[in-house]
Recover the amino acids of this structure.
């Protein structure tokens, strides 16, 4: 009898466990930065996983079967959107066989649709202009103000999928918003102080820092790439170096994956120092705090400014 | 199949596509249009070296895809390619598909490239090399085996990636065929299991086990067994390393007696020099293991090819490829055929950006 009771109890525990497991949302994000954001809002009510680890270039990933497997089990898929993941995510979604997360379904969380977009083309575009994104620049995750907009959108999606925890999600949204506002103010003050006596412009390699510059009121004269996504030719490097010299550019910012030889060549001709930084969180390297990422980037820039440029 | 006025048809379709291309990605139907063009020049480096000794527009393919309704997606691709001094304009794939009916499942029905092996699932302009290895040409066709039928793929709910696939197609014709063929005794059917595992931090390896069977109208059974392997390692924009290989065994059986057993394989390692340039060498092998002389003694035979290939991408939408084809066919240690030619290929894609498969 006891043995029978134990068996029933075990089955009961198993069933409760299963129900509990199902009650928790399973959220998959494309980038670790969105993983941090969703995790901060969902709290204990969701398991959140990122497809990319932060070391890949999200423009050029493949529809890796491991991603398909993760998306097949997801209740929600959160993406940056604005065509950043166009080269691989549609295939992952289709092959997952998961109706819940297909575009238009309640588990499809396209955060790019909710942010104030920069560089949205106003005239006709084509591929002769390089990898121009028709819906605007997708590299918004380095902007705390856009992350607040994305957070509001994510909260709505979470509530749609799990209305029982609406209050918790809304409470966490307030906390995240406060954190991001405070981060924005802190980093902006850092730059205000660092650039007060040296307001010369910046440059960037690709257009990864457009939102970053916008948030922290850093003046940039543009990118080293003449056309987005097209590696600059020797002629372009020389031309941009002359421009950087004449505009007295004090620093060029580049993501870690940018071609080092090109950057070195540019620096050699123009005399402009280069700062390369991680533009995404890297949880596998222990870098999983969005605030820490921002402080690391700002500190790297400011440290380089303090060592002085060759001019 | 339409042999007459094929170029006009293709041109008209392309033009009509381009006329509404401005709205292709932004209209309310989700219609996406993609056009792929494949130009090929070949020069033999020895007399009768096997090259076509001219520059040719090998193929142009128009692909159109869109959701049909909330449950189904539609795909159509039409290709014009040169065959016997004429351009043949024909449908490559026309199918409905859905991943919304059954959880973890994908279904497609219509005319499609059979979902087995590696090369057979990709259009030729998406391959990492210019021309098909002999095993692909002999077992599937110059590009791929396509047929009309239904295919079901199921992603198993296991802690690792394992997808199982089952397909049944009419089997009236097989390989790259233009005629309708004849009614088979048993339709073409195939099974595939795909397993994936991570490899280091930014890489992975995918392995497929494949079976295909068909019994034609004269009662001959054909069975194909194969294994394919694809390993990739990507660092930022550079596909630093690619290893692609397939090994196939084909057996033909007539009235219960095996009449021919053939094996074939290729191995293609490729190194990414930078985001624009890759270099690889393909090694092909092919042998009829059941070949016998009149006395029943085995006849040794082996065909091999070595194809070094250099690819240059101006962007992800245009590729220039230079390769050298060196092959030799031997029977009883005597070389009975050799091919030596240089290939220069240019591929470009207009229109919609198709997502990359692994």
């Amino acid at each position: 009898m006891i043995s029978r009771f134990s068996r029933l109890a075990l089955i009961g525990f198993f069933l409760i466990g299963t129900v509990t497991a199902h009650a928790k949302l399973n959220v998959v994000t494309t980038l670790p930065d969105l993983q941090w954001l969703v995790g901060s809002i969902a709290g204990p009510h969701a398991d959140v996983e990122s497809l990319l680890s932060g070391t890949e270039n999200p423009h050029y990933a493949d529809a890796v079967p491991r991603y398909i497997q993760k998306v097949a089990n997801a209740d929600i898929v959160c993406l940056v959107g604005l065509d950043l993941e166009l080269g691989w995510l549609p295939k992952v979604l289709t092959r997952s066989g998961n109706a819940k997360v297909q575009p238009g379904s309640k588990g499809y969380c396209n955060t790019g649709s909710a942010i104030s977009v920069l560089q949205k083309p106003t005239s006709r575009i084509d591929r002769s202009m390089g990898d121009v994104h028709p819906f605007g620049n997708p590299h918004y995750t380095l902007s705390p103000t856009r992350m607040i907009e994305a957070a509001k959108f994510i909260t709505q999606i979470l509530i749609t999928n799990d209305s029982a925890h609406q209050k918790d999600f809304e409470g966490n949204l307030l906390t995240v918003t406060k954190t991001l506002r405070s981060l924005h103010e802190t980093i902006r003050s850092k730059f205000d102080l660092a650039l007060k006596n040296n307001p010369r412009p910046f440059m960037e390699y690709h257009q990864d820092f457009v939102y970053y510059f916008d948030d922290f009121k850093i003046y940039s004269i543009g990118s080293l790439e003449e056309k987005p996504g097209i590696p600059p030719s020797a002629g372009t490097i020389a031309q941009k170096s002359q421009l950087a010299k004449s505009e007295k550019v004090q620093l060029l910012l580049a993501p870690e994956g940018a071609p080092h030889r090109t950057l070195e060549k540019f620096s050699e001709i123009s005399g402009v120092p280069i700062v390369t930084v991680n533009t995404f969180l890297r949880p596998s390297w222990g870098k999983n705090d969005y605030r820490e990422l921002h402080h690391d980037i700002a500190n790297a820039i400011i440290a380089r400014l303090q060592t002085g440029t060759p001019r | 199949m339409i042999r007459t006025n094929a170029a006009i048809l293709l041109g008209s379709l392309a033009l009509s596509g381009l006329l509404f291309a401005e709205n292709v990605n932004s209209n309310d139907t989700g219609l996406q249009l993609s056009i792929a063009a494949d130009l090929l020049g070949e020069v033999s480096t020895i007399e009768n070296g096997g090259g076509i000794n001219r520059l040719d527009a090998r193929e142009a393919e128009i692909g159109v895809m869109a959701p049909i309704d909330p449950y189904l997606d539609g795909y159509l691709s039409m290709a014009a390619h040169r065959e016997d001094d004429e351009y043949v304009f024909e449908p490559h794939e026309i199918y409905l598909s859905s991943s919304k009916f059954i959880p973890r499942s994908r279904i497609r029905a219509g005319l499609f490239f059979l979902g087995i092996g590696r090369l057979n699932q990709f259009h030729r302009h998406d391959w990492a090399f210019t021309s098909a290895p002999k095993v692909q040409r002999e077992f599937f066709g110059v590009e791929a085996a396509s047929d009309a039928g239904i295919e079901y793929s199921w992603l198993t709910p296991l802690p690792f990636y394992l997808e199982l696939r089952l397909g049944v197609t009419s089997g009236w014709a097989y390989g790259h065929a233009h005629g309708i063929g004849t009614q088979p005794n048993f339709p073409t059917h195939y099974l595939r299991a795909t397993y994936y595992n991570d490899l280091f931090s930014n890489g992975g390896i995918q392995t497929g086990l494949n079976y295909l069977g068909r019994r034609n109208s004269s009662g001959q059974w054909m069975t194909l067994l194969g294994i394919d392997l694809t390993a990739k390692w990507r660092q930022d924009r550079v596909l630093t390393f690619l290893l692609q290989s397939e090994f196939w065994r084909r057996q033909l059986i007539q009235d219960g007696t095996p009449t021919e057993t053939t094996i074939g394989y290729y191995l293609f390692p490729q190194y990414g020099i930078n985001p624009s340039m890759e270099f690889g060498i393909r090694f092909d092998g092919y042998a009829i293991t059941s070949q016998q002389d009149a006395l029943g003694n085995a006849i040794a035979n082996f065909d091999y090819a070595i194809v070094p290939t250099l690819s240059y991408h101006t962007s992800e939408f245009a590729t220039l490829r230079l390769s050298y084809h060196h092959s030799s066919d031997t029977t009883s240690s005597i070389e009975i055929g050799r091919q030596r030619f240089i290939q220069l290929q240019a591929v470009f894609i207009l229109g919609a950006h198709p997502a990359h498969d692994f």
